[in-house]
Automatic annotation (TrEMBL):
<keyword id="KW-1133">Transmembrane helix</keyword>
<keyword id="KW-0210">Decarboxylase</keyword>
<comment type="function">
    <text>Catalyzes the NAD-dependent decarboxylation of UDP-glucuronic acid to UDP-xylose. Necessary for the biosynthesis of the core tetrasaccharide in glycosaminoglycan biosynthesis.</text>
</comment>
<keyword id="KW-0472">Membrane</keyword>
<comment type="similarity">
    <text>Belongs to the NAD(P)-dependent epimerase/dehydratase family. UDP-glucuronic acid decarboxylase subfamily.</text>
</comment>
<keyword id="KW-0812">Transmembrane</keyword>
<keyword id="KW-0456">Lyase</keyword>
<comment type="pathway">
    <text>Nucleotide-sugar biosynthesis; UDP-alpha-D-xylose biosynthesis; UDP-alpha-D-xylose from UDP-alpha-D-glucuronate: step 1/1.</text>
</comment>
<feature type="domain" description="NAD(P)-binding">
    <location>
        <begin position="31"/>
        <end position="319"/>
    </location>
</feature>
<protein>
    <recommendedName>
        <fullName>UDP-glucuronate decarboxylase</fullName>
        <ecNumber>4.1.1.35</ecNumber>
    </recommendedName>
</protein>
<keyword id="KW-0520">NAD</keyword>
Amino acid sequence: ARSDDVDDQFSGRANGGRVPLGLKTKRLRVLVTGGAGFVGSHLVDRLMERGDSVIVVDNFFTGRKENVVHHLGNPRFELIRHDVVEPILLEVDQIYHLACPASPVHYKFNPTNVVGTLNMLGLAKRIGARFLLTSTSEVYGDPLQHPQVETYWGNVNPIGVRSCYDEGKRTAETLTMDYHRGAGIEVRIARIFNTYGPRMCIDDGRVVSNFVAQALRKEPLTVYGDGKQTRSFQYVSDLVEGLMRLMEGEHVGPFNLGNPSEFTMLELAKVVQEVIDPNAKIEFRPNTEDDPHKRKPDITKAQQLLDWEPVVSLRKGLPLMVTDFKHRIFGNPREDTG
Ligand code: NAD
Ligand code: UDP
Ligand code: UDP
């Protein structure tokens, strides 16, 4: 097939290692680890739309084949079941490294952030690919500075229940910068703030998915603690735009990618009531340990250097995930994953 020929020329296999200049701009080969997950699958959609050749590596720990099923059969798309904790040999131009058990229910005891990131950096080094790490606002811990600027070093408990995630991502950032400085690989770091949208895991315990699923199931919305803690919620298409601008741009980062509109959990519950069910009840539950009190990104750096800012408000974005959640909760004849 024609696409295969082009791929071979890119990797240099077709002409004894000489990559023809100029060809690279025609079609990029992009690896998305965690590409069957929530954010990853939306990113894959955009890359496929752009005409790239996309390889997804995912162990389906929290991701689902359904999220990328619409690309199966396309010669530019490849899906590999693989755990990034194990080494892998591939030839690509860019690596978006998203693989990570991203919710408190899933991330405990998992070395993906450290060992998986090391392997993907080793891969990037061997093939000279550009590497983008999806880090998290959790690197700021329970922040003593508000809103959080990229230069803030954070307030993280190294031995708490959330530590393997926070500290895992902090270590992943360190490894990324070490490979950049030591091995000269091109890297990009995104610090992602709370993101929501279609294809979010329904039962992984995050607040937006919990509230939306609860409202649809006519169950009470579970507000933890007094509900006065804040978060800033970003719609997934805004994040994907930011990730792609970061990858294509010239700046290493780290960059905060998030929506600066801040809501308390009680305010979020009110928006969910407005959008889905005005009769939904609110039920208070004890909060989890080490829950950050406030979180809101300062996105000045991304605005200035990436010319990026979110455009979808919570009231516009929430309804966009309701159709997908309804289908997945109550059954869906058309298998439409949104
Ligand atoms: P997700 O759970 O939907 O996606 C993660 C994907 O990685 C899943 O498909 C999962 O199966 C896969 N995966 C996990 N461990 C793996 C392993 N060892 N090998 C191969 N694949 C593996 O979560 P998401 O929300 O899409 O998050 C994507 C990335 O963005 C993560 O790195 C996460 O830390 C980061 N992030 C997300 C948010 C958010 O609000 N969604 C916030 C901050 C950071
Ligand atoms: N690695 C990989 N694919 C590659 C190259 C490396 O998975 O194409 C893994 C490799 O197995 C190692 C990690 O990446 O565990 C770091 O590789 P690097 O070459 O930087 O370190 P070294 O192997 O020299 O310790
Ligand atoms: N939360 C809540 N009800 C829920 C789930 C979470 O009130 O059903 C709260 C949680 O205590 C936290 C906030 O919502 O203060 C965001 O939690 P999430 O797990 O979504 O994201 P993170 O804590 O990682 O920002």
